[in-house]
Amino acid sequence: MKDVEREGDGEPWVSGEGYSPLVGSDFSMMAISYGDDDSSDCGQNVDETEKGFVKVNDDVVINQLRVGGSRDDNELLTRNYETLAEQALAALEADYLATIRLEEGHRNGKVTEKETDTSCAQFLQPSMTERLFEETESPSEKVSPAVFATPDLFPKEAKLRETSVDLEKVRKAVESIEIKNPSLKANFETWDLDQKEKVARASISRKSHVLIPDGPRRAFLKETTKAKQITHTLSRSATIAEALVRLNVIGAKVFEDTWCLNVHVIGCDQVECETDDRIRTYFQPLVRWIGAQHRGPTSIHLSLVGPGIVERDGSASVNLLSGSNSDRLQIAHASCHSALYKEWLSSETDKPDIIIAFNAGIWGYSDWCATIRIIAERKLQVPFVVTAYTLQEADDDYDVLEEGIIKALACSKEKIDLCCIWEPEINPFASKMDRPTQSAPAGRRYRENQAWQAWRL
Description:
Elements lengths: L24 E2 L4 E2 L18 E6 L2 E5 L11 H34 L4 H4 L9 H12 L29 H14 L1 H24 L8 H6 L5 H22 L13 E7 L3 H4 L2 H16 L7 E7 L12 E2 L11 E7 L3 H5 L8 E4 L9 H11 L5 E6 L2 H21 L5 E10 L24 E6 L1
Parallel strand pairs: 5-6, 5-9, 6-8, 9-10
Antiparallel strand pairs: 1-2, 3-4, 3-11, 7-8, 10-12, 11-12
């Protein structure tokens, strides 16, 4: 964990029109496509809404809508949860019926070896959860996701009586089990993370990426030692590239003759800025990928800001251009600034196109709340992307971001339109190198940029 702070109207992503998966964008057409015309059904759901925070007069009104499903009440996850709960209860019912039959068999002297093996365990084998996951992730195209069938895993006796499932009671029961059995909790977290990572990998495996070449992209799909080392080096550049595509930051400006892509990387320290070579290692791939675009920016400026940057404040900018760049990209450099972002921002005149904080630890440092509030009050209306070592830390970051936004709304006398673009989720371009952490709970994996979220501030 880093021990320092991590910290426009009319643009397509502001109105919700610019969100897209990371596949098939054609900047020259200023539109997001998905490969062949017959695969257009992979596009973003037009009914997907943002989680909005809007100040109206002196009253704070917080509209909490879904971004692909809310954190606590995602429809698909709830449906899967309910399915598992129902089938678990059905398994217990089957086990009870089997026990009754077994007792009757003992009394009648007609017990078979097959009956003695009948138990709840046979219905809760790993294969069951795997089949359930596959079924919920890939329902038949001809069946509505809301009603697709799950495997018929239980005997007829278990279905004689319909069971009404109280999800709240099931959740409380699960929480109680987790407290009493930490190893079970750790095993479940590991399994759950594995499933989420499978989904994230699938999102980048089906199509070529708009910015990231196939070679680097495929490294994030492999588990070899060499591939893991590559992902550790490329994670920052790839994460920014994916955010730029998903938020349509570059696509919104493709018809401008000359323009500068202005990226603020905040909460930086020696990890990113120790030497010029370190800066080039982490950020030159991004410049090279963007430079290969025919309608990309003519210049790129990365501002690396954070109080943990020592001995580099005001130093000469680092040139990020390489010989392989196209003729269109003329300038690309990074500058380092040793300051809290909220203080440095007051003297900055150029509006950023995107703000990103890597492994920010927002939940652990009080300065972040004030920084978030100031960004919101400046009404920059730009995307703010935050990564974290774990999904659990990303959830904690979310709570602090939400608190800072609420305070900004309460203090503002004018309307501020803020929203969560996507809630904490696994980053498909996370590093695959485990980060040793002494305080890590058993079974929890810490990796750079493993989870991320995005807001409009």
